[in-house]
Amino acid sequence: MIINTIEWKNNKIRLIDQTKLPLKLEYLEIDKLEDLWEAIKLLKVRGAPALGAAAALGIYLGVKDANPEEFFSRLDKTAEYLASSRPTARNLFWGIEKMRSAALNNKDKSLAMLKKLLLAEANKIIKGDKESCRALGSFGSSLIEDGDTILTVCNAGILATIDYGTALGVIYRAQEEGKKVRVFSCETRPLLQGSRLTAWELDKKGVDVTVICDNTPASLMQQGRISKVIAGADRIAANGDSANKIGTHTLAVLSKYHNIPFYIAAPVSTFDLKTKTGKDIPIEERSRLEVTRILFNKQVAPSGVKVFNPAFDVTPHNLISAIITDKGVIREPYIRNIRRLIVNDKTQNDK
Ligand code: MRU
Q1: pTM > 0.90: yes or no
Q2: Close Cβ partners of 297 (under 8 Å, ≥ 6 residues apart)
Q3: 141-166 pLDDT per residue, tens
Q4: Protein residue whose Cα sits closest to atom 15 of ligand 1
Q5: Distance 81 CA to ligand 1 centre (A)
Q6: For ligand 1, is residue 43 a contact (CB within 6 Å)?
Q7: Would you please indicate which residues are annotated as catalytic (active-site) residues?
Q8: Are 316 and 278 a contacting pair, CB within 8 Å?
Q9: Same domain, 239 and 308
């Protein structure tokens, strides 16, 4: 089953509307920047690497009809506008920066050539994501044993990338290598990415998946029913502190207590060396309606009650057994090993 989460097709951005899953696999065709911004804000497209691709295609969408006089001001405005959609995922900003550098490094080219180069750059980011997810999956699979039962949270799979996933890519690769793995997927309140998306795609790929409520992991760990935890990341600071879906930190604390390996899986495009520690990672706060209503429908909290709804939390690096990347698996000391990894990676050189 090949699913392209997001692509450029027929002069438009074509993406899966993830708010419709698991009931319908429906695609949106986007040719207006405002519609892309809204799709990002409402999590129709979501997950850090997919947001990087969305931002890259969005930059092209924003400048593709610009005339020579306005090209660079349109580029700046589009970049600023897309950057205002969601603050946490590093890949979104990385995608914008890659596109801006591609344009600025080719200032002397004709307008037609500049536009062509930008579309090529966006497609390169998409192709690069496919390759890096597969490399990450292969490094990560070396940590998986036949018979493992893996706990995951949110969705760090096909739907969060282009077509393979990070945390779930490790599982797909392990399965491709003939290892038998079972997965527990936390439902992931409030927007249920775990039950709606992770369960949907694992099931489609023939992986044995069981959905659990977000408050079930401690009990499963106590019973010895989880052998590993793997989560994705939205942004990884220079010291290895990792932001991911709210609730990930809870799983890391529980893993430490129960002596279970806790892994973060993310490509180098998720690392942010300018962010020194997790304290500096901007955490998105979302609408109260996500909490007071189940998927914006049935009301489940008193009208007017106070609500706090951060979308992400930060797992401190000392709770992370290893970070699985597309360039290899890294462990403590993270500051040194992350720096080495990024410095050796040419896709980060323009940072
Ligand atoms: O709010 P979301 O659904 O965009 O949150 C996504 C996550 O937390 C993912 O785990 C993360 O982006 C990694 S995706 C490979």
Answers
A1: yes
A2: none
A3: 999 999 999 999 999 999 999 999 99
A4: 156
A5: 21
A6: yes
A7: 234
A8: yes
A9: yes
